[in-house]
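Lab notebook, bench 4. The sequencing result for the construct came back, and we need a structural model before the next group meeting so we can plan mutations. Quick request posted to the team channel:

Model the 3D structure of this chain.
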Amino acid sequence: MEMRILQDIITVIKGEQQRRSELLTDEDPDFANDQWLFRDMPFVNELCLMLLVTLRHQVERELVRLAARAADDRKEISGQQYQEKVEQLKRKGWKKINARLNLNSFAAYEHMEALRLLANSYKHDPSMEPDEELLKLLKLKTGVNYAPLPESHSLQEGLAAFVGLGKDAAYCDTAERFVDIAGNFLADVQNRTNVSRVKWGPVSLKPKDFAR
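Done. Here's the predicted structure in token form:
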């Protein structure tokens, strides 16, 4: 998935956010406020969170591919060797990829860490509360109760400030900034990494070998 596609998805989410906001224009102010705070805003925020989880996985995929090709001598490797290295890196995990590409030397590394921790909180925490490590990275209070990720105003403000936006920034704007940062991060890693060329074997035209 290209970053352009994620940008297009954000545009769709922003359109839905605008549509829901316009529906409340002529409603009673108290009803409209409750509807927005407790229904519409959490819904839009969760769409943005799902996009950020997708973004995190896309970053991981790209880094695995780069790490599998990383080599000081830039010697050509076969397609089979490349696939074997990909599988090894997937088994050894994030720390091995980090070390191979020296990721913590990049300016945007902390942003990618925040993205990783946010994705983990969304996927793995039963109450969908922010992870303590994420709170520390965002310089938010720990040891207190937080609302679920889509509903937490404190987390929304913390994420916005972390990527250089005002605290009142919408989740869509924060997600858009993360996409930009991730795209630049991947480009920087690629530019600073010596990669081997992968030599693939002859292309099979047999129907059984086509991807399904």
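The first helix runs from residue 3 to 23.
Will bring this to the meeting.
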